[in-house]
Amino acid sequence: MPLVSRSVATVPLTYPLTRAGVATVPPPSPLTTASGSLTENTVKGKLCMPVFGAMTSNSEFEFLIGDSMYLMPRGSVAYQFYVNPGVRSMVSTVRDQGYTPVAMHPYPAENWNRRICYNNMGFSDFMDISAYESRDELRNYISDLSDFKVITEYIEQKAVGGAKSLVFAVGGPYGFSPDVYARANGKISLSRMTFPHELVRLFFVEQIYRAFTISAHLPYHHD
Questions:
Q1: Among 3, 56, 95, 204, which residue is least crowded by beta carbons within 10 Å?
Q2: Residue 9's pLDDT band (cuts 50, 70, 90)
Q3: Any bridge partners for residue 103, and if so which?
């Protein structure tokens, strides 16, 4: 599951003033120190994030769609004009790779036209503020901890509350017919390589076993 969090609401941002009226920057928090130490399978960079006037939706647009707000009219909101049905985005890319993209935003779905835009991008589901009832808040907003609890509960619900039986069909070297793809509830890619059916069945059973041991916290999988 690709996971992107655009807020770090639990990081303390207190800047006490000196007698001269100059803010003193606090030392890095444990969270920023840990994230800064990541090197393997990590892409880092600087990001200019507009926060005034609820323009964070434009940052979502740039990240998910890949277009820039630079040439758009000043003060415009991309979600209200520039996200049409079927638009190519990071969402459609992960869908093509067999993932199920789910959008989460702890605010009303109508804000900045998110409900329509997320649907146009191809999100399979959208959890707005209604999914966060009675959740913990931090500085009058839903905390990051509540965010991750909702994610965990969503995954667990899908794992135990889905279909009573699952059927996994292993495709041939040229895949399936369009009718089979249209009937399927999802697609999984084990590799870009082509393997014999005997090996694929073995690989797949082992991966299912691994997933259940991780879910049950059993000592099988190694990070």
A1: 3
A2: very low
A3: 126
